[in-house]
Automatic annotation (TrEMBL):
Protein name: WD repeat domain 54
Keywords assigned by UniProt, alphabetized: WD repeat
Extent of the WD repeats: 181-215
Gene3D superfamilies associated with the record: YVTN repeat-like/Quinoprotein amine dehydrogenase (2.130.10.10)
Name of encoding gene: WDR54
InterPro entries (UniProt xref): WD40/YVTN_repeat-like_dom_sf, WD40_repeat_dom_sf, WD40_rpt, WDR54_beta_prop
Domain (WD repeat-containing protein 54 beta-propeller): residue spans on this chain: 20-65, 108-226
Amino acid sequence: MVAVDLEGPYEPRVRRADLGAVHWCVLPFRVLLVLTSHRGIQMYESNGYTMVYWHALDSGDASPGTCRTKWGRGRECLLGLQEGIFLIILPFHIQYRLCLPGELLPVATSSDCVADMVTADDSGLLCVWRSGPEFTLLTRIPGFGVPCPSVQLWQGIIAAGYGNGQVHLYEAATGNLHVQINAHARAICALDLAPEVGKLLSAGEDTFVHIWKLSRSPESGYIEVSPLP
């Protein structure tokens, strides 16, 4: 676990008001601590002291909370930005930058289906992609005017957490809605997933954390959700 203290001492190269997100990026041979802000991207060794990579954002691209989501995939670390997607490959150089319209907030990935990446924006629009040397847009799931700050992919299912406290489960290939969960009284801050056991964790601004068991009905093929104590 990593926590951010916005009141105590802080790294002088990153102002407290600039900090967007802090995440672990787990790679097969290395674990990195990734800090993102509207000034740029910083990567540290797991001890939190040794900086191994720095990328500054253009001043024209900078806005609070630009960098939101990090993800490790093999030797790669993918970051979702408002101005597009950076794909950073070790040893820490930008291989290519995919610019997509709109503001990309969360990014989720999966290796168990053709649609292996989903992005979202402040309108709640979800875009489903097949990654590779070129990113191919497969499906667009319309938003409904509510931000989607967190998404996850599991067995071809998109779990999307929204600013109204709801979690929606969609079929990635078609965009069909399986389940709508009134999960929290306030906005959802983050979703996380244990793919091996089909457990989804949601955290909200109401200070609650909930765990949900996901399963696929053998009769209908639809996803079923049950809360765990």
